[in-house]
Amino acid sequence: MKKILFWAVAVMVITALMPLAMLLKYGKYQKPLPEDEETVSVYVKEEDKVIEMNKTQYLKEVVSAEMPASFEMEALKAQAVAARSYLVSRQNAYKISGTPENHKGADICTDPTHCKAWISEEKRRESWGNDADKNWDKISRAVEETKGEVITYNGEVISAVFHSTSSGRTESSKDVWGGDRPYLVSVESYGDTLSPKYKSEKEISLKEFEKIAKENIEGVDFSKGIVGDIARSEAGGILTVEIGGVAVKGTVFRKIYDLRSTNVEITVDKDRVRFDVTGFGHGVGMSQYGANYLASQGKDYKEILKTYYTGVEIEKEE
Ligand SMILES: [Zn+2]
Prior knowledge:
Elements: H1 2-26, H2 34-37, E1 39-44, E2 49-54, H3 55-66, H4 73-97, E3 108-109, H5 121-128, H6 132-144, E4 149-153, E5 156-157, E6 162-163, H7 173-177, E7 199-205, H8 206-216, E8 227-232, E9 238-243, E10 246-249, H9 250-256, E11 264-269, E12 272-278, E13 286-287, H10 288-296, H11 301-308, E14 313-316
Helix pairs in contact: 3-4, 3-6, 4-6, 4-10, 4-11, 5-6
The structure holds zinc ion.
């Protein structure tokens, strides 16, 4: 009899402590849903460590880092599905190839130039101030209402890359990175002209221009001219540009002169060099400002995703 009483009390105590254990583990109690139970290993670059995160929470934090909360709900949902697809495609790829050196064994990292931007909920809430609850609820809805949904091409989850603002046409992955991906081809993107990041300009002295070139490009010789032939993609991005007689890739050119995109007009005027830049980012896949424009025109997130990723389907993960 005593034994039964002991077990009855033990079960009651354990049951009572369960929510507390969940609270301690996750910070707040979350309803256990399939995606909510999954974890993702994230290499947090800023802290130089790998953290196991709840998948849903990680996706909310990515969306909050990648898109302003003021964007249309359908654009946020498109962003949520793109971020989930990108994550899943990385996980699938690393299962075969192993994780890259700079990931320290994690599925994904927080370096936006390598994977996706990320910010903790706590830090994001701080930056939002009084709008924190309202904004977080909106981002949460975008992730929860598209739960488990991924973008597929021929049944495979795609590497759903995205960028801030295109030039009015997106770039193909082939032109930017060389990999031929049939779902990442150049498409028309409307509304990018409304983005505050559509146009930017930068001016440096010719001396500085030459100095940067000499430091970064082998064999430059300015007696052969300053800026020569430029080859462009269908979307207008620089594929190669001749600098001091050497053909340089557009992506390298963008990086060394720290420009917002490869879509650049270069003007050499006496001792100055001016860069007139269109768009922001690598230009491949979904344009975030373009997505917001389409949403404002009544398109839903599936239509937005199908606009930017060619020949794809939106499916629920098994
Ligand atoms: Zn990464």
